[in-house]
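Name: Calcineurin-like phosphoesterase domain-containing protein
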Amino acid sequence: MLNPARVLFTLALLALPLAAQAQPFTFLAFGDMPYCRPGDAAHCEQEQRRLDTLIGRMNAAQPAFSVFLGDTKAGNEACTDAIVFVRTARWFGLFDHPLVYTPGDNEWTDCWQPRAGGHDPVAILARLRQAFFARPESLGRVTMPLTRQADIDPANTTFVENARWEHHGVVFATVHVVGSDNNRPPETGAQPPGAAEEFPARDAANRAWVAAAFAEAERTGASAMVLMFQSDMFFRDRCGFGDIEGVRATRAAIAEAAARFARPVLLLHGDSHFFLADYPLRDGSNRVLGNVLRVMVPGAEDIRAVRIEVDPTAAEPFAIAPLGIADRPRGPTCP
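Structure predicted for Calcineurin-like phosphoesterase domain-containing protein:
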């Protein structure tokens, strides 16, 4: 005959890991910095000092991890080794906790433009993958393991930058979607070198990775999902103009999966350089998806991060607030 007390004790032991997973935690997100003025060394030193100050504040906050949402330089800075790789590696190395990075358009997509030095963007992307995504783990002085699309998806072994991890019952995933219409070749005008081959392959991989992330959240019974990318894929909704074809399929994939998931989803991105939190995603019937919160981080001259406090057991698990010195804040604009 079963001993009721022993049964209850066993059930309590089995429940302990789930309770531990549900503990509140904090993480940080930031992007689009430092932006230096070409040829102005004093300005660049100033912006790097401001960034170093922010990183000090981020370290002091003791987050579980931080995420950099792309654009390690201004669009009109040259895509040289000194700027794209050496300068970036220096401040990436200042983090005393895990740092996850997803690329932006300024450090590879736009490098073909004359103002950025006329480089081959696909070649620079390959070098970014070698420099910052060589191992299945985060950056930072303390690292954490990451599950990479390249390691588990035989059809997409190139995309080491698409990563996933779980923390206290919440699934996180980076998706390599960038500004400049996601490197989609324009219908008219100059064509970015290699974009005709690069864009469709990465676009398909991104949609597969979004589906895989939500599948993992369903499989594990995650309480919430966080997706992170660089592109402001909602720019046209806000401003009424701008390219959208390069992100349309990914947006649709996220909307469909989020509607089916029906639990809280947080979208984090940069690109437009001001703090914003809203609910811009709609389902196939044009209804607002109330379970999908979008947060855009500051950037450029507004060198601040965003602090996200997560309570996995709450109906609205994400509490959002800027972190840093608001000495040059920028309000919502349409350039």
